[in-house]
Amino acid sequence: MAPIPTPGAEPEDSPESYVGLEAHEAERLARERGWSTVRSLPPGSIITMEYRVGRLNFEVDNGRVRRSWKG
Questions:
Q1: What would the pLDDT profile of 6-64 be if each residue is shown by its tens digit?
Q2: How far apart are CA 35 and CA 55, in angstroms?
Q3: pTM for this one?
Q4: DSSP code for 12
Q5: What is the Cα–Cα distance from 69 to 30, expressed in whole angstroms?
Q6: Fewest CB atoms within 10 A around its CB: which of 6, 18, 25, 36?
Q7: d(CA 57, CA 3)
Q8: C-alpha–C-alpha distance, residues 48 and 21, integer Å
Q9: How far is CA 49 from the centre of its chain?
Q10: Which of 55, 67, 53 is CA-nearest to residue 23?
Q11: Which residues contact 4 (CB under 8 A, 6 or more apart)?
């Protein structure tokens, strides 16, 4: 049987630090800080709720991050 994979560590970064930034700047900064996946979503999007280590989500409205969360 194959071993269970161990997820990598997430960056030591606060999702709240992206709120208010322009979306493209927030995505660039998140990737520089080590997030492997950055997902930008419009307000009210229907999304899956599985938790993915290394993913940072942005709710973007009028080009600015209004909300940010891990997973």
A1: 767 789 999 999 999 999 999 999 999 999 999 999 999 999 888 899 999 999 999 99
A2: 6
A3: 0.84
A4: S
A5: 12
A6: 6
A7: 29
A8: 24
A9: 13
A10: 67
A11: none
